[in-house]
Write a structure and sequence with these properties.
Shape of chain A: globular
Number of helices of chain A: 2
Number of domains of chain A: 1
CATH topology of chain A: Protocatechuate 3,4-Dioxygenase, subunit A
Distance between the termini of chain B: 18 Å
Oligomer: heterodimer
CATH class of chain A: Mainly Beta
Shape of chain B: globular
CATH topology of chain B: Protocatechuate 3,4-Dioxygenase, subunit A
Structural class of chain A: mainly beta
Helix content of chain A: under 10%
Number of helices of chain B: 3
Helix content of chain B: under 10%
Radius of gyration of chain B: 16 Å
Number of domains of chain B: 1
Number of strands of chain B: 9
CATH superfamily of chain B: Aromatic compound dioxygenase
CATH architecture of chain A: Sandwich
Largest interface: A-B, 82 and 68 residues
Strand content of chain A: 15-25%
Chain lengths: 237, 162
Amino acid sequence: MSGPFELRRVPDAEGTVHPPYAFPNYRSSRLRSPSRPLVILPEALADSTGPAFGAGTVGEAESDLTAGHADEPLGERIVVSGRVLDGSGRPLRNALVEVWQANAAGRYAHNGDQHPAPLDPNFTGAGRCLTDEEGRYRFTTVKPGAYPWRNHDNAWRPAHIHFSLFGRAFTDRLVTQMYFPGDPLFDADPIFQSVRDPRLRERLVSGFDWDTTSPEWALGYRFDIVLGGRDGTPMER
Amino acid sequence: MAEATPSQTVGPFFSLGLCARDEHELVEPSTPGAVVVEGTVFDGAGEPVPDALLEIWLGGEDAGGWGRCGTDPQGRYRFVTPLPLPHGGQAPHLSVLVFARGLLKPALTRIYVPDDAANAGDPLLASLTETERSRLVAEPAEGGLRFDVHLQGERQTTFFAL
């Protein structure tokens, strides 16, 4: 059988903004990173559509991670907002944005998290929202704490919020992590450092934002996201 | 053109944010034509991966043709889905993204239906090597299809660049 396409294969991260699969300093990648060449999908055969999530599927309250419990969570209250854009710089409307994070003490409300920091009965740490007409999203939450992990001796993850996003096409799907400016743990974190280009790493760091900082209430951080943009997915044209 | 935001791993605790709702049934199991698509995710040492997440997409214009499922402690996932239809001149297939702790970006693969008459004329399948092709086709199983994912090594699933 020989087909109509001369398929090209690449070893790993060639030509994209994304980290490689194999990044041995991140121990969990060692046995889970694909090691055989990756096939580049011809553009004509790639998925050009993806799932859509209607306005009715997400409740207004789901973007407030400090709500829904008997009392307020402990920690520094923050507002995280930004825009979601497609590769042409156009806003993605009605895009589903999902977030999850540790509490202010650096502990996830997850059975697998054994870090001996306190759970907060008033914080679960998960939220979602849909972007508006300008591609904007906004969450109210508390600033997550740094936490230890067992990747290497004295390993600590810089504070971060996990973000999950859907774009126009299934392959524009992005899961990433938003960090906070000036974190001293950046240099020693293999997950952050897996993005090799320092300029691209900066794209994962939110900016402190006076515009969404409100008096007597919360500090603001801004994080803009681009899905499927230049160097997002290698493709044969 | 705007530059894409880089990917980061879903980490070990993604179920908090991504599995709070049960989204593994794209249709009710009693729906005529619904099949079970299930399998196990393995790492390069052949061990099951208990903290992986699979998302599937039926393709085409039906925005509802999407589901996701986290693996259980034995590394297993399970979807209930209609069989995909041919579209865009391609044989019926499911597009699949695999996320996991340890994967810094998702792995993209496809599941094709065994013994589907359209497979022989599919432009992508025909352009792959025999080994690559065989690793994209599910096995028939009771009630549907079985498709194991091997993230690494000699038996690695055929993945597409992301």
